[in-house]
Amino acid sequence: MMKHVYSVGQVNTYIKNMFAQDFMLRKISIKGEISNCKYHNSGHIYFSIKDGTGTMAAVMFAGNRKNGLKFRMQDGDHVVVTGSVEVYERDGRYQMYAREISPDGAGALFLKYEALKKNLRKWECLHRNINSPYQNISKAWHCYRTDRSGDTGYPQYQPQAQSLCTAYFVSGACAG
Fold it and tell me: Model-level pTM?
């Protein structure tokens, strides 16, 4: 005769509590490839993160997207997802609750590059604005070479020489 018989809900609750007590699962970073990425009307993102040995369901809630996701995620992206692994009690399935998602590898460099371009555009460094009051001002560079003794003016390459450059602003008809 069975001593204890539990309901499905009781077992799911028990497992959820076991996950919640595991310190490692409360703040964990997982690296993998995005698949089944779906942006929901509510602002939530549902996706899977996978590698060569397994797949895990994941979700990023709309409230975490503003500060936790700096790019448009899509299938095939290699990312690092930081958040918690918890049990979705209703279905009895565990999944990753993402708080932050960042590109992994070359994707991270591309994001830094895009952020730099955005900043340079903000300060009008990548395009010339005809209506700008600064249209006739440009930066000129004066460069000279020195060796360790301070002598300048090497006409050919000298491995012991250093290049020193100074930027200054030029205005007028010759500014370019």
Answer: 0.59
